[in-house]
Amino acid sequence: MRRLLTGYMLFVLFATGVFSATVDTVNVFSNKMHKNVKTVIVKPRSYDGQTAFPVLYLLHGYSGRYDGWVRDSPHIKELADHYGIMIVCPDGGFSSWYWDSPVDSAFQYETFVSKELIGWVDQHYKTVPSREGRAITGLSMGGHGGLYLAFRNQEVFGACGSMSGGVDIRPFPNNWDMADHIGKQKDNPEYWEKYSVMGQLHLLTPNSLKIIIDCGTEDFFYQVNERLHEELLYRNIPHDFISRPGAHNRPYWSNAVKYQVLFFSDFFYNGKAN
Question: φ and ψ at 214, to 5 degrees?
């Protein structure tokens, strides 16, 4: 009888999600920006504080916030459980584009994400504290951020990705507050080269990073993603490029993130990505 009750209790616990991923919401202080930055940290149910886990840094888009992924795509908690990874979602500001702005000291998000946040997470959680245990990706502005930060910080991240990313900002000089952070394109054309993903390709060598790029064919960023794909091919940079029917919206990203997490899981555990 006791065995039957125990089995029933375990069934109830699993059915009600007691043994599912847990979500921490924390404040991480940025010395560079002199403020706390809210961050969501998803821990898989197997996290016990003893075993080290790899970490996926998952970035939100323009006008988003730290809790956007867990709120609008809650299945990322199941992905964390299934693949045995931690997922960290920092607040990237309304329109930071994850740059260290050359004109606004309040927006220094490259330093925050690639240095300050990494150090804080490694100090407070049991992680794999090396590039072999870190990947970064995101949607839209965060897709730009995922590639831009990884290309520029290859000692920190071993894999990176983008979903519907703004990977070339130059065709969009009047959009998404970018001029507020790097100046107007007509006045600062060199910044619009330097702060674009397309302007960072010279930093790559074959297999220096594992890269996955995904964009829907009806997305207004599709053409710049295609150009990035073609340029990477020209430079012999191995990468996965995925396109399918879809627009710049949450249903697309909620589906795309499943393929991205699978890719990063292969990188973390099997070394098979690319």
Answer: -140, 130
